[in-house]
Amino acid sequence: MKKKAILALEDGTYFLGYSFGAEGETQGELVFNTSMTGYQEILTDPSYRGQIVVMTYTQIGNYGVNEEDLESGKVQVNGFVVKEVFFRYSNWRATKSLDEYLKENGVVGIAGIDTRALVKKIREHGVIRGVISTNNITPEEAVKKARQVPDISELDLIQEVSTRESYLWKQGEWRLSEGYIETEGEKPTVAVVDFGVKFNILRRLASEGAKVVVVPPEEAFDFAKKERPDALFLSNGPGDPQRVVEGIRLVREFAGKIPILGICLGCQIVGLALGGRTYKLKFGHHGGNHPVKDLKTGKVEITAQNHNFAIDPDSLPSEVEITHINLLDETVEGIRHKELPIFAVQYHPENSPGPHDSYYLFKAFVDMAKRAGQ
Ligand SMILES: NC(=O)CC[C@H](N)C(=O)O
């Protein structure tokens, strides 16, 4: 017999389903992800801290989990909601089931949910707070708990996911039957400010030949002053960008001194540091098929995305140019400073999971850093 579980929302709605992964109770903001594959990369993306992820794709778990498709050392989502979960899996790289993996990581999942109805609700209401419980509580109790979930903008989530100490990253590209290739990047040195960086960002930078040093946010300022890296990279990460004051200060200090690239949270930080404002989107962008237009070339890239906040285009000063927009809702997807070597994208050029259209951005950045380091 499958163990029963409940998913309750702050608006009073609840869904009954069954438990997989860890048993117990969890809470967070619900967001939906439209990727058809890549649940392991999604689960381990540190930007999902504080959030319960609902998959729109209906069958999850059928290829198990493996030792390689990790975006960080563990499962980061607060909870996982699916229509149908597969306890039996089949894939040559798989080492265990999704159920075992979530159990090991202590993360609560719920299956048997009408995810189409749930996604419609999130689209109408916007991001919504919720609770998953396997504890046999009444729907009324569960709804009450959902209403007590704190707003994500009140939480300090970065400290839960960023590194405590600096380290050198050596993993490069993945090759069939070899796995990830070790690289010893020499130059340029890129200091990655870790707000919850995804491994594939580090792999992309290393693959382009950079020496990648990952630094905790609170040490980044002193590190950049002392070690003089050739470029600064601001990573993705969870929570509200307005809370990341050390990041904003860092960009203001080093703008024009060394090249800077920001991705996702890093992009929002760059926007704030250059004088813009950020706001919360109704239900964010989470998926692998968002069309983004490069306004200079007119080219459209199909991108992977995971964000709830965005830069307000009207808030940007005249020295900052909007370089990319999202073709679904015309929100800002990329900015650059017109004179200084600073650029940033809201989407995820490292993909993972997602299409590889935007890999060229890492080369452009490493080339910029090479020139700066000469
Ligand atoms: N992937 C990210 O870096 C997310 C950035 C930010 N936490 C947001 O939700 O918008």
Automatic annotation (TrEMBL):
Task: Mention one GO biological process in which this protein takes part, according to its record.
Answer: L-arginine biosynthetic process
From the UniProt record, give the pathway where this protein acts.
Amino-acid biosynthesis; L-arginine biosynthesis; carbamoyl phosphate from bicarbonate: step 1/1; Pyrimidine metabolism; UMP biosynthesis via de novo pathway; (S)-dihydroorotate from bicarbonate: step 1/3
Query: Broadest EC class?
Result: ligase
Q: In UniProt terms, what function does this protein have?
A: Small subunit of the glutamine-dependent carbamoyl phosphate synthetase (CPSase). CPSase catalyzes the formation of carbamoyl phosphate from the ammonia moiety of glutamine, carbonate, and phosphate donated by ATP, constituting the first step of 2 biosynthetic pathways, one leading to arginine and/or urea and the other to pyrimidine nucleotides. The small subunit (glutamine amidotransferase) binds and cleaves glutamine to supply the large subunit with the substrate ammonia.
The encoding gene is carA
Tell me its EC number(s), please.
6.3.5.5
Subunit structure, briefly? Composed of two chains; the small (or glutamine) chain promotes the hydrolysis of glutamine to ammonia, which is used by the large (or ammonia) chain to synthesize carbamoyl phosphate. Tetramer of heterodimers (alpha,beta)4.
What is the name of this protein? Answer: Carbamoyl phosphate synthase small chain
Region annotation (CPSase) maps to: 1-188
Q: Which residues form the active site?
A: 264, 348, 350
Identify its protein family.
Answer: Belongs to the CarA family.
Annotated source species? Hydrogenivirga caldilitoris
SMART domains in the cross-refs? CPSase_sm_chain
Q: Where does L-glutamine bind?
A: 47, 237, 239, 265, 268, 306, 309
Q: Show where the Carbamoyl-phosphate synthase small subunit N-terminal domain sits.
A: 3-133
